[in-house]
Description:
With 129 residues, the chain is α+β, with helices and mostly antiparallel strands. It has 2 domains: 2-39, no CATH class; 51-127, Glutaredoxin (3-Layer(aba) Sandwich). Helix content is 42%, strand content 14%. Helix 2 (16-26) packs across helix 3 (30-39). The longest helix is centred in the middle third of the chain and has 12 residues, at 66-77. GO terms for molecular function: 2 iron, 2 sulfur cluster binding; ferredoxin hydrogenase activity; metal ion binding. Keywords: 2Fe-2S, Iron, Iron-sulfur, Metal-binding, Oxidoreductase. [2Fe-2S] cluster binds at residues 56, 60-61, 97, 101. It holds the Pfam family 2Fe-2S_thioredx.
Amino acid sequence: MQILQETQLKYGYLPLELQGTIADELGIPLTEVYGVATFYSQFTLKPKGKYKIGICLGTACYVRGSQAIIDKVNSVLGTQVGDTTEDGKWSVDATRCVGACGLAPVMMINEEVFGRLTVDEIPGILEKY
């Protein structure tokens, strides 16, 4: 786990080639490394954008319209959940509860939290970046 965490921190993701190197160095099958990398949601096998958007789909956020927020973000960026834009600027993910239920619906861009969102606010927020 620690090696995968450090590798992802350095490279931003865990491509199959690096997983193979890790497996070889540890003397274990690639399938074991791949199994850990795909089991834990903290790891990603694809590069992420400079700006990582996470939209909460926890109960409070979902009830207050987070699906519409996701739809608007994807519409503006031309993405789908799990995608990174071709220019590498944006990646979009749905997340579980981020612990800001009182601000529902919530979206994060990197470490910045946006709460009590409406669909109409999305273009302006994205333009700031």
